[in-house]
Specification:
Layout (H helix, E strand, L loop, with lengths): L1 H15 L4 E4 L5 E5 L4 E7 L5 E8 L11 E6 L4 H19 L38 H23 L4
Antiparallel strand pairs: 1-2, 2-3, 3-4, 4-5
Length: 163
């Protein structure tokens, strides 16, 4: 079975990518790595005659492989061009999952998943008033308590007769 997988993988690699590496994985399958496109494909035996589990995923920074994003069982007796079509579709799914579209970033409203309504301008923020205070009541309470603690320490060290 390994010989058939290796032969099919070598043909697929030549069709899919000019630059590739084909190697055997621990489980008896074959991996095709396309470093320049940061994707990988593997063919693994399924236990069925002339069938293989085809998986595709990304290559992460540093060269490690991410878990498979998509997988499908294929018939190894099918023409290699047909298998290449399946591989291209799977690689496109992996690329789409790795590269989110332009509308998937954070919205201007700050709420994830909600886009601003068309034709409606976002609310403008009021500028701060001249001479407005930035210190809230809670901060004043903390400052007063710290002042009391410092005063108590100063009194205990210098204010009481120590003799």
């Amino acid at each position: 079975m390994y010989a058939q997988l290796r032969e099919t993988a070598a043909e697929l690699a030549g069709i899919l990518w000019r630059e590739h590496t084909v190697y055997r994985e621990r489980g008896g399958g074959v991996v095709i790595r396309g470093e320049h496109v940061r994707r990988w494909i593997s063919l693994a035996p399924t236990g069925g005659k002339d069938q293989a589990l085809l998986r595709a995923g990304r290559i992460l920074d540093g060269g490690t492989t991410a878990p498979a994003r998509t997988e499908v069982v294929v018939d190894l007796t099918a023409p290699v061009a047909e298998l290449a079509t399946v591989c291209r579709r799977m690689l496109a799914e992996v690329a789409a999952a790795a590269d989110p579209g332009p509308g998937s970033g954070p919205s201007r409203s700050g709420r994830p998943g909600k886009a601003p309504k068309p034709g409606k301008a976002p609310k403008a923020r009021k500028p701060p008033r001249a001479g407005s205070r930035h210190t809230g009541a809670g901060s004043w309470v903390v400052l007063v308590l710290v002042g009391i603690a410092v005063a108590a320490w100063v009194y205990s060290v210098f204010g009481s007769p120590g003799y």
